[in-house]
User: What shape does this take?
Amino acid sequence: MKRKTVLITGCSSGIGYDCAKALAKEYKVIATARRDADVQRLKREGFEAYRLDVTKSEEIDKVLEVILKNHKSLYAVFNNAGYGQPGAVEDIGKDVLREQFETNFFGMWELTAKAVKVFRAQGYGRIINHSSILGLVSLRFRGAYNASKYAIEGMDDTLRLELAGTQIYVSTINTGPVRSKFRENALKMFLKNVDYTNSFFKEEYRMQMLEAKESSTAAFSRESDVVIANVRHALQAKKPRARYYNTEVTWVLAFLKRILPTTWLDKVLRKI
Assistant: This one.
């Protein structure tokens, strides 16, 4: 029996890579990554892999074209590519904010919009977009990342309304703390793009980012299998959920947002 084709972005490491490995047992996974070296490594591991920098329209077009040529159809897209850009709102420049949105939101939006056209033509499809608990609540010094993930929430909520009555389903994955290289990579972006030595928050930066060995939620971190289980459900369920919460932290903070007045919720979030 021919396996259904699933395109996953951001497979160089972490959740994207782990999902690609796990799902390859059941689906024809098309694994993509931004760097050529990662693409070659994925190929050596047996994946059908392609270079895909989601900020480049021509690479999105090329990957979709190749998939349809080789496999004739596309069952699902898991938009996983993204990164975190730490820094207080006042310390983030416009170019840095734009770069965060180009990868986390605009790239996801473009691939999603083009995939929808494929899905409409074939009459079915699944879109799984990787948001975050920080698409539901905000934390200090995560303004650029928070904003990019809130944008995904708005896009997905709209897409569900526009695709109602079709066999094209949209699911949002709200991931909490999961063990990966996310924090390590975010720190690199902080050091690259934030003039922390001249910031009003330089002491807090020093304690929370530069000297901290792990984040405040590290004790509650889970392995990527919690994400894999939800992605698998979104692919297999007759009617997948609109939203999947990963980790206890996600459930708790999402619940507190629903029940607490904003001022009370702010007090909780300032302590994280």
The domain at 5-270 is CATH 3.40.50.720 (Rossmann fold).
